[in-house]
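Why do we bother with holo predictions? Because pocket geometry can differ from the apo form. Keep that in mind while you read this record for adenosine-5'-triphosphate.
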Amino acid sequence: MGVIKALRGTRDILPDEVNYWQFVEATARQILANASYLEIRTPIFEATELFARGIGEATDVVGKEMYTFTSRGDNPYSITLRPEGTAGVVRSYIEQGLHTQGVQRLWYTGPMFRYERPQAGRQRQFHQLGVEVLGSADSRADAEVIALATHILQALGLKHLKLDLNSVGSPEDRAAYRSALIDYLTPYKDDLDEDSQDRLTRNPLRILDSKDQRTQEITQNAPILLDYLSDYSKHHFEKVQQLLTQLGITYQINPRLVRGLDYYTHTAFEIQSDDLGAQATVCGGGRYDGLVAELGGPQTPAVGWAMGLERLMILLQQIQQTPAKVVDFYLVSRGEVAEMQSLQLANKLRQMGFSVELDLSGAAFKKQFARADKSGAVACLILGDEEAASETVKFKWMATKEQTAIAQAELFANPDTLRQQLIAHR
Ligand code: ATP
Ligand code: MG
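The structure, written out:
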């Protein structure tokens, strides 16, 4: 029969690689908990309209990349697999009344779906970890989320990262800038790439982050948004920069860094790595003071970011930054009575908090010992019918091969000492 394969743009994360994922999740979880961020889990599919309004019809994500289908039932409606996390979090914030409960500091992680051309660091099902601070306009919130992103990346041991920073001002600032930009670009219209020609009237700011070389040459001398900021916008941006400098976080201002929709405001930032080739951005975010109102909630300032976890894994695997697997005991048994008793022994040790890998093969001792050597266990427990009958067990330290016979009761008698010995023999 034909073999069924995983779909293009999706992949299996096998146990070896899961180590890296758990390391990233545990590191982020700890750092975010220390900053009083709480985890939120929202559905993986939502009403299509949420993303159309929440991300914007004019974006690539909504225009070209969504997995959208019609529900079953008598009154079919349009459903979309979430392409990002913010829209769902904001929907929940409004629907569940979180806006009545003060500033919300939230984080999430999980799979996202976009119909894109798969390549290294770009998939159709990929994973993000993100944070959102809802209900604060304070520049400290902008600096706090940026600091958390850099803290997480640093704690993972990642290097060669750079932080690009910009302000996209308020919608009013952008209206003035927009016409200046259109005036500048219109004479070059025919030289722009096709997407950019299309955006000239619909969403001209997005032309600034075109990847087309000729378009980039043209935008090099375009007017910049920073020159159109109001006093409030300028002040906010300066404060964010001061705070980052105070925190020792280096950044560079990149006037081409834009988020092209009306509900994005003020701070925009991206963290990129030199070690990722074309898919260089590991984290992107910014302020979105207009989004909660756009989705039907009260006017609420907010700021957040999302990290692409696949790209982090590529970087981690380059530096092999992952804790090795540690098992306390590898349990070898052979003989009818011994095998019957082995699970009981393993279970008891596990309930005491030790990790135990039980060899289920029933093979010759020699074969089981070979597997014990490979297992990464600190010690090997050996149970033959003789030991089983006398309720003893042979205890072998893997590092020194030193072996003693002890009563099973002795093994259970003093867990704290045993734990210390295991750590000392790692
Ligand atoms: P890009 O320019 O790389 O397409 P984006 O602007 O579409 O990124 P965001 O929507 O800001 O990305 O998502 C935040 C992060 O999620 C990105 O910086 C990236 O690390 C990751 N990401 C986005 N799309 C994908 C994808 N298809 N596969 C893997 N990671 C992705
Ligand atoms: Mg994209």
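The first helix runs from residue 15 to 34.
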